[in-house]
Amino acid sequence: MIEKIKNIKQLKSLINKLDKNDNQRFEADILRIFLINNKHKKMVLNVLNNVGLKNSSTKKFNILIGELKNKNNVHCESDGSRIFYKSTSIGCRHCVKDLGCTVRMTTQCNRNCFFCFAADNPINNKTGVDLNYLKKNIKDRQKEVNFLSCAISGGEPFLFPSQVFNLLRFLNKNYPETYKRIYTNGDFVNDGVLKKLKANNVDEIRYSIKPGEKPNASLLELSKKYIPIVMIEMPILPGIEAKKEMISLIKELDLIGVNGINLLELFFNGFNVKAFKDKGYKIDLSDGVRKIYDSKPIYEYPVYGSQENCLKLIKYFSEYKANLFINYCSHKTKQLQYNEKNKRLAKTKKKGYFYTTNEGLHKILCVYENIESAEKLLKSKNLIFSIKNNERYGQRLETSIDNYKLFKNKNHLPVFIYRDPSDLYDVDFNLAN
To answer: Could you give all domains of the chain from N- to C-terminal order, each with its CATH number?
Structure first.
């Protein structure tokens, strides 16, 4: 595959194979995939290198995972994709299966947190987002997947409280069984707001706390009177001092009686490069640059040291036997949701001879030479195929990867092509022979 081409020697080897086959369509297809992927990788690395890179230790990660697996009340997948103490929110369970719907009420906020994905969006108007637009998004999402929960997020949604309650009434009327949750920093939440949330059947409220900030104990205790599930959600900073602060904070939250906390792996967001550099943070690129078809934000990468602190916090509180539940939402957890989206999209766009990979890509066998004889062979066996024409470069035949045995070691130049789940463009390839 293209990602295996890491140096000039390997690139020259590929070019020699292309020249040897002397097929313009084949050369154009493969080189286009190669150049687009490498341009994408270079663009991402140019931004990430401005912050700095440092890979986490696989050995240290495996040791921590092994320790967590032996702890009572801890669920721990070996790859780190799902780790939690005691339980998780219903909303989180729906999220990883891509059975949720998130509505961004606004990107504006009264705060300016360096790590936020809605950064650089100060308060600049009083209208917020068009509610009809939001309602249409919800309806479109319902057509896409029968979602089980809906989250209202921001920015800070309670900059526009009337719109929040209008949207909640819409959800109650059209999707009454949906699990509803609100994300907020809490600055505009009071007794009156909480009463209205209860009247609109809100199941869960998640308060964000900035690292180093003290929890608003009176607000949390008041919220418990009206909302069934009260949670905290916050990114975990790297370093020993950050870990100590989080231990103190979670103990305080446990005494207040909040239901749970979502530990977020700290991500670089593509914004505020100077802030990340000034704090001495590095981007953890252990898993490499993501593929071009990945639907995550293009510069969303974890920060080195955040994951280690998250795992150590879960270990600590499993031994401390905290009453609240603790969930770790990592880049691997988020990938579960994106994989589900890709697989569903791949299934929707799937043609009769497509094979869907675990990543949600379409894998196709393409034949570039002796198209007519390949076509006759497939017709004689009643096998499905199609012919793709390009006015400049000619034809290629597409068929199922199961038919590779018919063309193996024959003069047909078979190639495995991987297509993005929306079925718009080829993103990778394997030389079949």
So the answer is: 2-45+349-431 (no CATH), 52-344 (3.20.20)
